[in-house]
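Inputs:
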Amino acid sequence: MARPLAEAIYAALMGAYDPQGWWPLLAVRGVNPTASGSLRGYHPGDYSYPRDDAQRFEIAVGAVLTQNTAWTNVERALQALQAREAIEPAALLALDDDTLETAIRPSGYYRVKARKLRELAVFWQRLGGRIPRRDELLGIWGVGPETADSIRLYAFGQAEMVVDAYTRRILGALGLLAERAGYDQIKAWCVAGLPCRVEVYQEWHALLVEHAKRCHRGAAGADPLLSAVADPGAGQRRRGGVSGA
DNA sequence: AACCAGGACGTGA
DNA sequence: TCACGTCATGGT
């Protein structure tokens, strides 16, 4: 039985970029502000985060704020919220609309996202410290498939595959996805080809994002790193042709 | 100066 | 179901 393609892609990405240490946390940035790997709150190789409910909620808030938005913009919003000690459900709900919107303005869509954060905070209060099911998260106004899966995977350490625009772009460019493939289909493809381990799911998603940022900006050119992996014959053919068994 | 960022919702067909 | 418009700031 052949090794799943996703596993080969994972190995290539890991070999090229090393562990990414997602999800970034403000506390990690504060604890380890100068270490190169943790410079922005990332904690590569350390899977002991999040360590409390405050960090879990911070991840959920970040997951909402980063919807269709660059993470650098989200960081400003998170810092503004932290300055008001509002990365906590009750405190966030205690902010008036204008204060909340002003704090998260750098992350864009600030009116919609302000409402989304309130919905999230109310949900969190009713959750009572339990691990939310996926369908419960999807029931929150403002939480769709990717955000729900991100919260499950990174905030609660559940083996929930996250699919994002980068995943679709990279796998699509390699010709591995059906043209009409939806979120759940892409998710199923990834799940089928990777070991069901939280660390693997976290790194898979983070590595794809890193790879896309480096190699898939703008017009999709050839993927020098992954094309040989996705088409195993390509490398050998270029090298002069070795017939595989 | 367009174009894009670690999407989701509301609407009409 | 599904395509399309909307939401908005900041970096390239």
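DSSP finds 14 helices and no strands in chain A. Flag for discussion at group meeting.
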